[in-house]
Design brief:
Layout (H helix, E strand, L loop, with lengths): L4 H9 L24 H12 L3 H11 L4 H50 L6 H4 L23 H11 L4 E6 L20 H14 L4 E9 L14 E4 L16 E7 L17 H23 L9 E5 H15 L3 E4 L4 H11 L4 H8 L1 H14 L2 E4 L2 H7 L8 H12 L11 E4 L16 H7 L11 H7 L9 E5 L8 H10 L1 H6 L1 E5 L11 H16 L6 E2 L9 H10 L3 E4 L8 H8 L4 E4 L4 H8 L2 E4 L4 H13 L1 H14 L5 H12 L24 H9 L64 H8 L2 E5 L6 H14 L6 E6 L4 H10 L9 E4 L4 E5 L11 E3 L1 H7 L5 H19 L5 E3 L9 E5 L8 H10 L4 E6 L4 E6 L4 H12 L6 E6 L15 E5 L28 E4 L4 H10 L6
Helix pairs in contact: 1-4, 3-4, 8-9, 9-12, 9-33, 17-19, 17-23, 26-27, 28-34
Length: 1051
């Protein structure tokens, strides 16, 4: 039996229920059992249970073997692989159960602590947790969307808003985007989202009060895509010019703006775009600033017209929108379209891949972190359905529906939220253009009767004959499915339901529009494998003459395909396992087609409004067949569903969508660059008069107070009807008044000082825009002496170059920097700026002393107005102190983490760490803060010996963008010096339009800070970029050679 041991494991794990197994011969080898059916086993166990492409290929190779012994040996090996898969699936399921349990405990603990902080003034209205009340802000569509039922109503609405001149920025990065002839279905990145954002931009551009809409995307100049995707600008012409009420201006309307970033001459999938996001942000920032100036000249009386909102679509664009929002200090809006955590859970449930494998394939953890950042930064998150909020967004650390409701109740009562914030979730169904749709009231037979000499009919669209050629009886009702060949679209279950239901096959035909293809072998492996499985099912059930699956169709053909299905009195079906919204359902309804749709996701809300079909369980094959048969056979039901859809479809029109959309985004608390009223705020770079800079300096007044108050803002500042929290009556630092917390200024006594630095060289600030290059020293040295040595070397490299400026960027305080420079014999006046406290403060050198506690520096207070957004203040500090105490209690030793009052400022809470190996990784602390609704950026510094907690949109990289926005310093002129590794914000310093020099051998000990990252640095850093070079060493000659490669210096 030794040679047959594998059979026992195999039988126990898998085959104990196989009906083809002969129990009397169970001790024999598999290859000796004549009654065992490998084909049946493969279909029932492998295809339905695992759907593994590699196993399928192994099966094909095994079945092709002529030698019975060799074939059975291969099948035996496959059995072992399947058994291992079964074990792996069980293990992954067990790990996921444990992970969910841990997450539930963390969520409950965080909610409890947050509630405890606010317990002194809780009301009874805040204590209930009824599910139905959780999403009071995400109301359903019916009854909440006022109808636009006549031209008069629309004109009245237009008169109320025509005085506004709004500038809106939309961002959608991946896929191929153009205004006409969209190649939807070309690949998995060019799908419904592409159509949605283009139509949204087009519709917004025609709305009263909207002057300009920019849709920012990636410029693609690759040989395998059309030349139109390389055009920098494309105007989106309105579909219905008759209702275009907008007054045209020189730059008005809607435009696609293509920003070059990423590999040149190469079209890449969205999972590979992450390293190049900073490059897009810098390019987009330049465009928005330039356009704001242009619009200012046209409609802003000379003052820049900033975007009323920056709206990101999908995680990659959300990450970009958050950075742009922080750099410009304007509101951000986000739409997820699909969410990473939901996709991760679905993939884990399948049991085919581990979390690590999924992350390698989809870069899913980077995507999830981007979505968490959007929760931190967004004023409003727009969803298509309530299901997206209830079942998807609640999976995230940064959104808790229960805590959100408590905060909302406190805001309405004017009670402090103790620094906690939740974004406002708004349900706005996507819109659609209906003016060109004329539902067909005829049928296949009636049309022939109408044809004649007096009433000649228009020729049938070419796509009709392309579909009809598949059918032996083309007059039967058509069941239409329109989806790319993707497993999650669940087309195989539809084909099985159709193939196994004889009455349905006799009554109807099935049409599958599955994207475009030239050769199946040239498709992606997943799509090709799934398409082959569909074709094989068609063959299995002998559905030839009853199923159409054309290879090609144009986007302009889609309305004709709907018309054909309606003409045959057919049905549209969307059987996807989960459908985030279901735009095709609305399109089908607009053409008079009843629908059958999945009960998971957006179709539930669509059906609630339209009441034009049936919902099914996508996993229940019989349910699908029954619903289709019912609609096809019951003509009265078909007519009723058709009429309901046509009657209510206007609720999903683009005017309805845009009207609700504009009402929401214009209700956000306005934010824009603080100095917008300053005459030189964004003056062109040619204007370098000394007076420009002097005026700005004279606006800076410093108020130093020993009893400095810390911000306890607790509002959800995106609430449309709520102003600043009544408990937060402080004048913020953005009003050019600095209030430093106790201990923030060494040696300060009980006195206040108010001084204006009128002795600062007026050219010092304007010099930032005149510098040929600016060297940013952001090296995180292993020791302070190492950092000083690196600073000296970099300064020495360009000693003879007067056109080169210097900026120090570090986690140290301004006092530590001053001491460091003094110890090394360097003067603050040798530098143009200092980015301190991990990017939470920006200082400029001063020729006099006494401005900052006797130090020769001037603090940029406008920068504080930029990073003030959602800063938790004292509520955040108390939570951090409590966390530090829990760490100390848990370890049972001396104080491991202690608050560093001397290193803290109003916008940076610092903690000293005696033993970095005993504290959790930085992502765990950030997660804890998010669970409690506290929005911040957690940075582990100095090899883990220090923790800086700063505002969520503050960082060293964002501070560089601020200098560009504020002073016009060209980002492409920046050269950032970093080590091989660095502090936990290291990844933000690489990438973008600036150039980077990686100093070999510097900062390598900081790698331990990144050992427990959720995604590797290699996934998000553009090491292959021409703007990133690695120096062979940290010495003058090696650095000069690196700068020569970058074209900065000539040796």
């Amino acid at each position: 039996m030794a040679g047959n041991d594998w059979i026992n494991s195999y039988l126990e794990a898998i085959l104990d229920v196989d009906p083809g197994l002969d129990d009397k011969k169970s001790s024999l080898l598999l290859r000796e059992r004549g009654r065992f059916s490998p084909t049946r086993y493969f279909v029932e166990e492998v295809i339905t249970g695992f759907d593994e492409t590699d196993l399928y290929r192994s099966w094909i190779r095994a079945a092709a073997m002529r030698s019975t012994q060799e074939r059975n040996t291969r099948l035996e090996n496959m059995c072992w692989r399947i058994w291992n898969l079964a074990r792996k699936k069980k293990r992954l399921e067990g790990e996921e159960v444990q992970r969910k349990a841990k997450r539930h405990i963390e969520r409950e603990r965080g909610r409890k602590e947050a509630t405890a902080d606010m317990s002194e003034d809780l009301s009874e209205g805040e204590k209930g947790e009824a599910h139905g009340e959780i999403l009071s802000h995400g109301d359903g569509v019916r009854g909440r969307m006022p109808r636009i039922t006549s031209v008069d109503v629309m004109e009245n609405w237009a008169k109320q808003h025509k005085e506004k001149k709004l500038y809106i920025v939309l961002i959608s990065l991946h896929g191929l985007i153009r205004g006409e002839n969209m190649e939807l279905g070309r690949d998995s990145d060019t799908g419904g989202q592409v159509k949605y954002v283009v139509e949204l931009a087009r519709a917004l551009g025609t709305m009263p009060g909207v002057y300009r809409v920019d849709l920012l995307t990636r410029q693609v100049a690759a040989p395998d895509v059309d030349w139109s995707y390389a055009e920098p600008t494309e105007m989106l012409n309105p579909r219905n010019s008759e209702n275009f009420m907008q007054e045209l201006g020189e730059s008005s309307g809607a435009y696609i703006i293509r920003i070059p970033f990423g590999p040149k001459h190469k079209y890449i999938q969205k999972e590979l775009l992450w390293p190049y996001i900073p490059e897009f942000v810098d390019g987009a920032l330049s465009h928005i600033i330039q356009m704001s100036r242009v619009l200012g000249e046209q409609i802003g009386s000379g003052n820049p017209v900033w975007p009323v909102a920056i709206h990101g679509h999908y995680a990659d664009a959300g990450d970009s929108a958050a950075l742009l929002s922080g750099a410009l200090n304007v509101p951000m809006v986000f739409t997820g379209h699909s969410l990473g955590r939901d996709k991760l859970e679905q993939l884990l449930k399948q049991g085919r891949q581990s979390r690590e494998d999924i992350n390698t394939t989809y870069k899913i953890m980077r995507r999830i972190e981007a979505e968490e950042l959007t929760l931190d930064a967004s004023e409003i998150i727009i969803t298509s359905t309530r299901q997206e909020i209830e079942e998807q967004w609640r999976l995230y650390d940064g959104f808790d529906p229960v805590l959100e409701r408590k905060l909302r109740a406190r805001i309405k009562r004017g009670v402090s939220c103790h620094g906690r914030f939740m974004p406002r979730m708004i349900v706005i169904p996507p819109g659609m253009e209906f003016h060109h749709i004329i539902p067909n009231d005829g049928d296949m037979d009636g049309e022939e009767d109408e044809k004649g000499e007096d009433n000649p009919a228009a020729p049938d669209p070419p796509i009709w004959s392309e579909i009809m050629r598949f059918f032996s009886n083309p007059r039967k009702p058509m069941i239409l499915a329109l989806a790319r060949p993707d497993p999650k679209k669940n087309i195989t279950t539809l084909v099985k339901a159709f193939g196994e239901c004889r009455p349905l096959r006799e009554l109807a035909n099935l049409t599958l529009i599955m994207g475009n293809r030239d050769d199946i072998d040239e498709m992606s492996s997943t799509n090709a494998s799934y398409l082959l499985s569909i074709i094989k099912l068609i063959d299995k059930y002998d559905l030839y003459g009853q199923v159409a699956y054309p290879k090609h169709h144009k986007q302009s053909d889609v309305p004709d395909i709907y018309r054909l299905a309606a003409k045959t009195k057919g049905v549209f079906i969307n059987p996807a396992f989960i459908e985030p919204f279901g735009l095709t359902l609305i399109e089908a309804a607009a053409h008079g087609l009843p629908i059958v749709a999945t009960k998971n996701g957006g179709p539930v809300d669509i059906h609630r409004v339209l009441d034009n079909g049936l919902l099914i369980d996508p996993h229940d094959q019989q349910s699908i067949a029954d619903a289709l048969l019912k609609l096809v056979s019951d003509k009265q039901l078909w007519v009723r569903c058709r009429q309901n859809g046509l009657k209510n479809i206007h609720l999903f029109s683009w005017p309805e969508h845009c009207k609700t959309y504009l009402a929401r985004i214009t209700s956000c608390r306005p934010r824009q660059p603080q100095w917008k009223r300053s005459e030189d705020g964004l003056r062109s770079e040619e204007s370098d008069s000394p007076g420009d800079s002097l005026r700005d300096i004279q606006d800076l007044s410093l108020k130093l107070s020993l009893d400095g108050d810390k911000n306890e803002s607790g509002t959800l500042d995106n609430s449309p009807d709520i102003e600043e929290n009544a408990a937060d009556g402080k004048d913020m630092l953005g009003r050019n008044v600095l209030t430093l917390s106790k201990g923030a200024i060494r040696g300060a006594q009980n006195e206040s000082t108010e001084k204006v630095d009128k002795n600062v060289s007026s050219s010092k600030f304007s010099s930032l825009r005149k510098r040929k290059h600016i060297f940013v020293i952001a090296v995180d040295g292993d020791t302070t002496s190492d950092f000083l040595e690196t600073v000296k070397i970099v300064v020495e490299v360009s000693m003879k170059e007067n056109s080169i400026g210097f900026i120090l960027s570090t986690s140290m305080t301004i006092y530590e920097i001053h001491s460091l420079l003094a110890s090394g014999g360097l003067s603050p006046l040798d530098f143009d700026a200092f980015i301190c406290n991990s990017g939470s403060e920006v200082y400029y050198p001063s020729s006099s002393t006494g401005d900052v506690a006797g130090l020769p520096f001037v603090l940029d207070l406008d920068y504080h107005s930029h990073i003030e957004y959602r800063w938790g203040g004292e509520g955040l500090r108390r939570t951090l102190v409590r966390w530090a105490a829990s760490i100390n209690d848990k370890k049972g030793q001396e104080q491991i983490v202690v608050e560093d009052e001397s290193g803290s400022t109003a916008h940076c809470f610092a903690f000293k760490v005696k033993e970095p190996s005993l504290i959790p990784p930085f992502r765990e602390l950030r997660k804890l803060m998010r669970i409690q609704g506290l929005r911040c950026h957690v940075i582990y510094c100095q090899n883990g010996a220090k923790i800086n907690v700063i505002p969520v949109l503050a960082s060293r990289s964002q501070a560089l963008r601020y200098l560009y926005v504020r002073w016009g310093a060209d980002l492409s002129n920046f050269v950032v010096f970093v080590g091989e590794c660095g502090e936990s914000d290291y990844e933000g310093l690489l990438g973008g339009l600036h150039k980077s020099v990686i100093l070999k051998g510097v900062g390598s000990t900081a790698r331990k800070l990144h050992a427990d990252r959720s995604y590797p640095l290699e996934d998000v850093t553009p090491f292959d970029s021409a703007n990133v070079v690695q120096s062979e060493g940290c010495n003058v000659n090696d650095i000069k050679q690196s700068l020569e490669k970058l074209g900065v210096l000539k040796i």
